[in-house]
Protein 1
Amino acid sequence: MFLTGGMSASEPFLAAVRSRVYEACHPLATQTLRIESARTGPDAALYGAARLARELVDPVA
């Protein structure tokens, strides 16, 4: 799972999200789950929206 946005670069925020996810989910569902900050940082949503728009316009690309 990749977290995006300004808060995603905060290690305490990532630790809190990891803790809550692992606490709430069955161990088999999370045994290979990685929760990390997206490499694109706060612009990840823009990259995702651009990719979705491109796929909608030209599904072959």
Protein 2
Amino acid sequence: MKKILTSILSSAILCHTFAQTEFTMNMMEHVFQSTYVNPASKPDHKVSIGIPGLSSVYFGYALTPFLPSETFTKVGSENRFDLLKVRDLLNKENLMYFGGSSDLFHVRFKCRNTFLSFSGRSVVDNYLGLPASLGDILTLSNVTKVDANSYKNKTWDLSGLDANLTAYNEFAFGISTFRKKFGYAIRLKYLQGLANATIESTNSTVAFNDDLQLQAQGNLVMNTSSPAKDTSLNVPDNYQAQDAIFNFKNMGFGADIGFSYFFNTKLTFSLAVNNLGFINWRTNPISFESSASTRFDGIDVVNPLINGEKVNTDLNQQLKLKKSIKDSYTSYLIPTLYFTTKYNFTPRFLVSGTIQAQKFNVVRIGLSAGAQLKLSRVFSLTGNIMYQYRAFNFGGGFVFKPGPIQFYLAIDHMPSQIFQFQKNGGTEAVVPDIKQFNMRFGINLVFGREQVPQAQPLNY
């Protein structure tokens, strides 16, 4: 267990992870994709059409407890990964998230005072929660029997070790309507599950037993649904991508809800709750469950990868988990809430403040303050400063619309510096030295500017 957790942790730090909390895009209401953050965003155009595969590409990462550079030690001229530093930096609740999304299509059009939309996108959402005690366990590799005696009465709590790894397609119908003082929106989503793995730990602890062997107790449950039909989780050789595309066994539903209050022509308050939903997994559902007391010898992942060998991923054999075949199981999306205030000083210039909250194990809060300047009919700039995961950073974006073609880019947590380290084999690599990064970019087709007399010359 310790070896596979070490591999996951080091890979996440070096390769980074993705995070789905967007502040900059929330301010860019003239882009359809802003409705992914706030469904009640008020459009600037009557019609928006997404170019398949190009209208939106999203990726980013989050690593809450530390910066990548903080986990390395300088040895001569090289930076080497240091688990002892990781142990010291892990706090009570740690989150790693990696994923991304790509739009398949979207169409939005206005009908009287109501906007209707149809959209589809592919999404990968991977959440990993790590308890602080995990750092102690990961640094026990060289404990001798003499050392272990000093640990006899020590117990490490692993109850915060949880994961939710999901890939799915989303097909949605959205409706938003705007009156003089209020705006309402809802997006109803059909979810086509592609693959999933969840880990839940309850009252899980690790300690040395009387024989000085590392012993795990409590309840650890892992559910998986994938093309693999056995405990090795290896995908069959004859598996084709279309097998997943046309697999509708894993069915789920979700909703995004938005509300806007127009206090006057300048001040707007908005509230959005996204990713309320679930997926019921029926494709090869397998459950692995630990017994009341289990000795973990570990899974060696790093060395086989370095030596070009095949990793033994038979969980039933390696982790000594009890395997059972289920009819189905259910996983849930990770809900996110945004509360936003916007104030238009002029038709050209607005400022905005956002409070964001996301629930995975615990509620995590993010804050943002930003401004948007519309320079002309075809170009606007957005910038903001944000505080999230105990770190300040900057974000920004632009919209460029020559004719009906709309190009846009939105970035949260812009990297201000990079960190260089030496990988196994002596090759050099660099990564952005920040805790979180988000980027969304794409191309839409938009038609028919909304008739807003005061701002009409500046609409996009």
Protein 3
Amino acid sequence: MFFGFGKYRLIGKLTRGQSMWKDGCNSNLNNTMPVYPSDTEQNGESNNQECNKGNQELLITACSQLQKGIEQHKNGNLKVAMAFLQESWKKFQVLEDLSQQIKALRYLTLVAYNHGDYKIVINYGTECLSLKPEPKIQQQILSYIGNAYRHIGYYEPAIQYLSQCLEIAKQLNDKKSWVAALNNLGLVYKFSGNLPLAINFYEQSLTILQELQDQWGEEQVLKNLGDAYYGLNDYNKAIDYFQKSIQIAQSLNRPRNVVRLFKNLATTYYALGDYAQVIACYEQRLKLAQELGDTRTQEQSLRNLGIACEANGDYRQAITYYEERLELARETQDSRSEKQTLASLKAAYYALGEYTALMEFE
């Protein structure tokens, strides 16, 4: 049966269902999906060549609604986009125009995915596949459905759909979609707890990305490999992959990615008990956060620097970091952070035996 959950209801009759199996999509829709029929189609030479004037007007209205839905999606108005797209699909069903139904359903699937309505993604995607679109469209829709199942934790159907997506990408020799399917399968196996198999898919993906000289994708897959090896407690390999990912992110001038990666790297060094490296990572993370004006990351970095210094036995330096964090918390009026930092300062002074200093925090 179809899922009837989510913020939207399907409009129009659904012809085929998809049952639930209990146990990062790639898309070129904006570049590959035409919206309006051609002049000859609007003159009656579309799938419904003998349509009367009423049907012709209905076709033009449906195409207009499809275009509005696409525009609203581009502007980030996903609910409005969904409403326009649903209405266009309903009219294309009345007209029995399969090619336009496919176009509407592709965008409905995309918008629902971007909105996080994964059960609705499965509904629309399955309906689109039932119309037997061309292989490239099948590959895109299979990717959305597989990733939707991954997001809601149903890994067996996720693997089945993504495996079909991978096979079509191979047949089409579409290397970018091929890479995306491999990486998505890696994510499914990671979340299902099969880290060795996840690593296998990531490594296949990495090989193709390096052949394509796609550093943006390579940075992400290197991070995924680092995460997987961290999960296997193979910290040295995790560090190697995180460092490589950082190098690429720096070369691509992606400071926010570097900020996130330094946290992963610091966490791995902490697991090894290498507190000096932990401090070095968080110092670099703090500096980048300051340059970006990211006060939340600054606050987190100062907190973790204090913790690392305590673990290293350097309570005096920990106090310095906590004092910086306290000042930032008060500047940003973050009462929760202020309360936590005061408690950290008290604990650090207590560890130093400086009990008179504790009176300042009472």
Protein 4
Amino acid sequence: MKKRFVLVSSLLVLSISLLLSGNLPAQAPAVWSACSACHTIGGGKKVGPDLKGVTQKRSEDWLRHFIRNSQEFMKADADAKAIFDEFKIPMPPHDLSDAQMKDLLAYLKNDGKMPAEEKAAAAKPVEAPAEWSACAACHTIGGGKKVGPDLKGVTKKRSKEWLHNFIRNSQEFIKTDADAKAIFDEFKIPMPAHDLTDAQIDGILNYIENYKAAPAAAPEQAATTTEAPAQTSFNMDNPEEFQHIGPGNNTWKFIIAVIVLLVFLFDLFITKIIKWNWVHIVAIFTALWFMYEIGYAEAAALGRQQGYSPDQPIWFSHQVHAGQNQIDCLYCHSTATESRHAGIPSVNVCLNCHNVVKKGKRTGTKEIAKIFEAEKSGKPIEWIKVHNLPDHVYFSHAQHVNAGKVACQECHGAVEKMNRIVQVAPLSMGWCLDCHRTKGVQFKDNDYYKSFKKYHDEIKAGKRSKVTVEDIGGTDCSACHY
């Protein structure tokens, strides 16, 4: 009892002396005077813990509870209880207004410094980092729920460490964190893992914290920016680079060449209107050459579908999904890393997002409604396969994507720019073999190729710069035909 009395008396004297001394940083909020009796910011432990970096270790919501009434808060919070157990001194409750609390936390966040230039910088809109484009596909800042939760104020509700863990790998984090699990249970959509550096994640969090929405349009401008009514038909054309791929339609060229051949043969042997025979010979051989070229191109294209771009049962744009919204290919084609086939997404995969996103900017509700119709009927959407190979050809997506580390675009073209998928490559035997003869195998950090010890040794010795697919049997007949 005596020790406690001495301790409390000492604290009281210390507090009064600090209040009377006025020896506080010029820009410290008034409430800091009471805090400074027991705490420092970067000066080490005092009566209570050093508060340097506390706003990064704890969420703003946690700090508000602790400051207002630590004795009540520690009954329900293990971290608060641990702090009391370490210092053994109860912190008195503080009846602070929201404004006072905000000033105090801002002061702590800046490690006891609130220069005018920082305030001015905070007032300026923060430019969105490149990584935000992926976040924007599922989240808004102050715009309400989308595919995932609204992120406005998330940096105040959660600690920096918590947000880093959730952003990096939410599916692993939900196994050990109840709050993360609750978010997943609410939205039912797994957020993909993001291989980002600390600096990149900090950039995203800084943007969210300092985001300022663009000012609303003036009333007279609102009428000009109103979304147009849903169209009844949609432009499914691809950019110019994806048009006119493949041999095209040579029918009329072939017919004209035949007509020219017959006309000049008829004149040469029967009508003889043209007196110079060399004209007939030139015309006849030119027509025969065109017929040969067209015949060769058409014969080479037999069984191939380069340029094939069929109408699909639902207007689906890879440009919107993979390009604009940056949805990973593996989210929809989930078996590409472990199966021969990349797989077509089921209706349930579509509904992961479209349970929330029910209206498209280009198509309104018309096309998305077909997904709900398919789900209601229990019948799968009959997507039309674009890239086909002969039955006697063995091809494995897993071999190329997982082991070979081949990007989707190397065979399928820049699908993120296509409105509707078109077969860009010929997918011929010669096309595949050319790739196998020149494509370097990614030996580094690839367990699949550990057994090729000879090649690893040659690379280390400097005798070989790369190993091609051909070097490991990629041009053997049995590799694709067995």
